[in-house]
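Hello Y.,

Per our agreement to keep a running log of every chain we model this quarter, I'm adding this entry. I've kept the format consistent with earlier entries: sequence first, then predicted structure.
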Amino acid sequence: MSELTRLSAADLSAELSAGNVSAVEAAQAHLDRIAAVDGAVHAFLHVNPEVTLAQAAEVDRKRAAGEQLGALAGVPIAVKDVLVTKDMPATSGSKILEGYVSPFDATPVALAKAAGLVPLGKTNMDEFAMGSSTEHSAYGPTHNPWDLDRIPGGSGGGSAAAVAAYEAPLAFGSDTGGSIRQPAHVTGTVGVKPTYGAVSRYGSIALASSLDQVGPVSRTVLDAALLQDVIAGHDPNDSTSLNESWPSMAEAVRGADLTGLKIGVIRELDGDGFQAGVRQRYREALDLLASNGAEIVEVSAPNFQYSIAAYYLIMPAEASSNLAKFDSVRFGLRQAPAGGGTVEQVMAATREAGFGPEVKRRVILGTYALSAGYYDAYYGSAQKVRTLVQQDFANAFEQVDVLVSPTAPTTAFKLGEKLDDPMAMYLNDIATIPANLAGVPGMSLPIGLAPEDGLPVGIQFLAPARQDARLYNVGGALESLLVDRWGGPLLAQAPELAVSTQEGTR
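Predicted structure for the entry above:
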């Protein structure tokens, strides 16, 4: 493996700025890594080396000309296929958008390009971000680099696996109920869901518009902070975008200090249902935080127990509305019945052929919840629970600076193990969903390997809305303590992937 692919984004940026390596060399090293291992991992759906190298060459030209460049200029980045791109297809993991190329870049992609980051390709995901394992992709599952027989999390398993497999130092994810944080937990990476509205959703193919949030995936807390600094900010194209300035997240990491920080352990997310090894590593992390200046207190969030039920009414209802645009008329797949048919018949045939079973399940559920006579009983009641969850957060943050829990109940399970049990799959997001219902920021970072199976475990920090810097402060401090204890990053303990062909990489 090229040493360039082992560097963090921050370290690679330093090498690029010093002139020790060119953007083209960095891009080529990562393209070579993708070619070597992605046949086994299947993190990417689309890679276009010609476009990637041309963009890298433009960064090198600007640097040689003495132009002012961003802190991450020349650093490669992978893009979750939920974000539209004008030079690569955007399918959202679905057959109904197979081959679709947008006329514009999603705002986070446009901001990354403007800052000089170099997109490598589009990463695999559960179809329309509906899933916790990346097994619901229409293009086949992604595999966890720690164990190729296990899931990489979802819906953004492709982005997390690409970063964990050293195919990219950074990636974009999107998080509707945990789709950045849960994959980070099972792949030993860092994943951040910013405050709702901190990062523009313009050009992000919508699942649930009141829940979706774009955010960074990386191997270090500092790298995630550097990427969030690039993409955070107001976008007039997104009506939910917050119109305010943001402090530097990177500076929050560099100045990380636990002294006097009050960290609240969520009682309802610290008990039965969590794997023994997950709880063990979590408890060790809490002890490490306490021994280095943080005050650990227990807080209660009694309405968190209803979060999954509320989420699986709100999210499908919004998905039902958002996916109605895929009607065979304007763009995407068009599947006509034999001998033709009416508009309604073509629409039905297209959706039958283009949508996978999980998407159909959630659309049917959401449509039912919004139907006449049931709206108040289901969708309306779920929104009331959402308000109670928000009140739980407000009450908790009156007592503590940040909240903490395990990111997910278990380590990575085996591919196929939960496909026939949707409820068991949904329960993977029990710890992550509350943050989306409340719009608060959340971070997952690795804290070790579970003793039962040697697989990564993540810890989740949650902060009040607009206080993303607190996550980076506590996350950076804990990461530094853990790296010192381990003698290097956790991913250094991962087994090296066998060199494969590019089979399966589109």
